[in-house]
Design brief:
Largest sheet: 6 strands, mixed
Strand content: 15-25%
Helix content: 25-40%
């Protein structure tokens, strides 16, 4: 009834390869990154939401859809909803031990995710990067990183609208002889540093790669390091923030560190 979505494609890949952890991880990453429309019993009140609750043999579930049209097709009537990211919904449900039904009966990605899997997703998303300081000596073209990670970074950074001007993936040598890879953000908003670092950490986690495989740094556009990274590195362009985004009011769930509460 609607065009295929990123969640549909990730779900199909997971179903086609049930024994592959990588496909399952990519589905959960797409779920966390997707905007979902959570079915409510009434309009939100401040930071409190009242989702429609369904009692099933496997526990309590709420329902969410990755298109408004899919929600409308399921309920067959006008219904209240909240537009939230999958990660915010996971954090909200994990506190209460509630499962999540996604696109039930209206899309190929129809799936019931039990409370245990929702809690796992929330824990996985909560594993943030550690902050360290090291002096960089040389930048080199990136080499030896798996394609799955490059694709995950490209997909993840495409959702970081307006948070930085660009990012460069480079090989790097550190004082003392250490070597590795660095994703350097240029012109990032100071308040977005934590979110961008977590996004890179998630790209590693959901690619099945050890977190130590990639460092993250932040540089101003006038920093000489930015020019050196541009010469050696692989560039990722982040989408610009449009006028509508700048003017949009703060909505419940827009701050991932302060998810809405159930009522």
């Amino acid at each position: 009834m609607t065009d295929e979505t990123a969640l549909d494609r990730a779900h199909a890949a997971m179903e086609a390869a049930p024994d592959q952890d990588a496909a399952r991880l990519r589905f959960y990453e797409r779920l966390a990154d997707s905007e979902l429309f959570l079915l409510l019993t009434g309009e939100p009140e401040g930071d409190q939401l009242a989702p429609e609750m369904f009692e099933l043999a496997d526990g309590r579930f709420v329902l969410a859809f990755d298109r408004e049209a899919r929600l409308a097709a399921f309920v067959g009537r006008t219904a209240a909803y909240a537009a939230l990211s999958g990660r915010v919904i996971a954090a909200m449900l994990a506190r209460e031990g509630i499962g999540l039904g996604v696109n039930l009966e209206v899309a190929p990605s129809s799936i019931l995710i039990p409370a245990e899997a929702v809690a796992w997703l929330d824990r996985t998303l909560g594993h943030g990067p550690e902050e360290v300081e090291a002096r960089m000596e040389a930048f080199l073209p990136p080499a030896g990183l798996p394609e799955v990670l490059l694709g995950a970074l490209d997909t993840k950074l495409a959702t970081a609208r307006g948070l930085a001007q660009a990012a460069y993936l480079v090989g790097v040598t550190y004082a003392g002889g250490g070597r590795g890879h660095l994703l350097g953000f240029v012109g990032a908003l100071p308040e977005a540093h934590g979110a961008l670092a977590r996004a890179v950490s998630e790209a590693l986690t959901f690619s099945g790669i050890e977190a130590g495989a990639l460092d993250v740094g932040f540089f101003s556009a006038t920093d000489p390091v930015a020019a050196r990274m541009a010469q050696a590195g692989l560039r990722f362009d982040l989408p610009e923030l449009n006028v509508e985004d700048r003017a949009a009011p703060v909505a419940p769930g827009s701050d991932p560190d302060a998810p809405p509460r159930l009522r």
